[in-house]
Amino acid sequence: MKPIDWTPILEILKSHQRFLITTHVEPDGDGIGSEIALYRYLLGQGKEVVICNTGHPSRRFEFLTQQIPIEWMDSPKAKKRLLWAEVLLVLDTCDVTRLGSIGKEVDNFQGPIVAIDHHLFDHGLDAITIRVPEASSTGELIYDLLRALEHPIDAHTATALFTSLVTDTGWLRFEKTSPQVLRIAADLVEIGVQPYELFSLIHDVKSWNDLSEHIQILHTAHPVLNEQVAIAVIEESRYRKYRPDSEAAEEILNTMLALQPVEVAILLTETQPEEHRISFRSRGRIDVGSVAVSMGGGGHHNSSGAFLRGSATEIEATLIEKLSSLFPAS
Ligand SMILES: [Mn+2]
Asked: Is 330 inside a domain boundary?
């Protein structure tokens, strides 16, 4: 990762008092970890800070959020909070459509909007943006910011940042796990992070019901394009009862990606009748980021997503058509 010029952001942080921090809908470990690290820094500087997210928190991250009053909100509340804040800090996305109720109100926001992100593309968020696609996670960028500020990192903040790093890199193994990421991880462990304990807190939280749901979902997994693509489906009726959070979805996708010769795993989640979230994971050869972008979505080379209207069968046909050129018949 090239050195980042944080000057414009530092000036905004210094010269304002009331900050609203948010991240994308269905906040993941990176979003929440980054929010908490930045929240704790600003609070320590005597600023007034509120974290406000759309969507339900995952209980996986309660160990990070339980002492921090995160607000989970609808539109009227978002409007009020945006009137209160002088600066809006958007973490782990630059996509206004991924901001839920805040995204709907953001056009009326009077103050500066700062976005810190590592996704490939930005979509319509008018912000002062630090977007570094080479970064493993937004947490890596927040670490860089805190170090640029020569701010001492305590154990709680280290745990938040470590959560960001490991949840976005599949525990330090994905493509963007650079030597620098491992050095940051080492620094955070030195400060007091206990990786074994943290892994257990984040991942060993499944119930018997979760297991049964995972089995049902994996029952729908099937191969297409010469077994190089695996697709599983969550129907709307199941989604209403059981909403896999980002880490649970990750586990389902990883199970499919572990099959030979699968190169791409896809999870179709019917979030509304005839409306699907498409989650892509790639083993590395196929750029699923570009595939998602061509469908109006976004993400990274190996991990991306999009929303599409239509039945699972229709979407699967579209996907096969899109992907077939990437998998020439051998
Ligand atoms: Mn991220």
From this structure: no
Instruction: Find the 330 Cα to ligand 1 centroid distance in Å.
Output: 35
Q: What spacing in Å lies between the alpha carbon of 31 and ligand 1's midpoint?
A: 6
133 alpha carbon – ligand 1 mean position (Å): 10
Give the CATH number, domain containing residue 88: 3.90.1640.10
Distance 37 CA to ligand 1 centre (A): 14
C-alpha of residue 47 to centroid of ligand 1, in Å: 25
CA 328 to ligand 1 centroid distance, Å:
31
Residue range 90-138, pLDDT digits in tens: 999 999 988 988 988 899 899 999 999 999 877 778 899 999 999 999 9
Ligand 1 midpoint to CA 131 (Å): 11
C-alpha 229 – ligand 1 centre gap (Å): 24
3-class secondary structure per residue, the chain: CCCCCCHHHHHHHHHCCEEEEEECCCCCHHHHHHHHHHHHHHHHCCCEEEEEECCCCCHHHHHHHCCCCCEECCHHHHHHHHHHCCEEEEECCCEHHHCHHHHHHHHHCCCCEEEEECCCCCEECCCEEEECCCCCCHHHHHHHHHHHCCCCCCHHHHHHHHHHHHHHCCCCCCCCCCHHHHHHHHHHHHHCCCHHHHHHHHHCCCCHHHHHHHHHHHHCCEEECCCCEEEEEECHHHHHHCCCCHHHHHHHHHHHHCCCCCCEEEEEEEEECCEEEEEEEECCCCCHHHHHHHCCCEECCCEEEEEEECCHHHHHHHHHHHHHCCCCCC
Name the residue range of residue 45's domain.
Answer: 7-202
Domain boundary among 202, 232, 248: 202
How many structural domains compose the chain?
2
CA of 208 to the centre of ligand 1 (A): 29
The per-residue pLDDT for range 210-234, each reduced to its tens digit, is 999 999 999 999 999 999 999 999 9
Chosen domain end from 202, 219, 242? 202
Tell me, yes or no, whether 29 lies in a domain: yes
